[in-house]
Amino acid sequence: xxxxxxxxxxxxxxxxxxxxxxxxxxxxxxxxxxxxxxxxxxxxxxxxxxxxxxxxxxxxxxxxxxxxxxxxxxxxxxxxxxxxxxxxxxxxxxxxxxxxxxxxxxxxxxxxxxxxxxxxxxxxxxxxxxxxxx
Length: 134
Description:
The protein has 134 residues and is mostly beta strands. It has one helix at residues 3-22; strands at residues 28-33, 36-41, 45-52, 57-62, 68-78, 85-87, 91-92, 100-113, 118-133. The chain is 15% helix and 54% strand.
């Protein structure tokens, strides 16, 4: 290889790397955890447990047209937390029944939402650890 070919190859590599960085999706979220606002990074998690409350709570969700509307959301918390948070999405593979307190083993996948330019967490059911009537 001559020097001119190497220089072109190096330039092409630099351009390809720079091109990727402009396509970076926002993978940070602000959440309220135990009453405190925290910035968290959306990552893949193979297994974690959450407890679901026996009743849904009123929450705000984004409609398909981009406006916020009132809805009913599942309330969840990690098993060691005191306060429940609202989940404004579905748990894939799980059907919620009101009147039961659940402990679920879930996995989280960081899914790129190219329309919004963000990475969003999607939860999938691994197993129902317990289901207790309230």
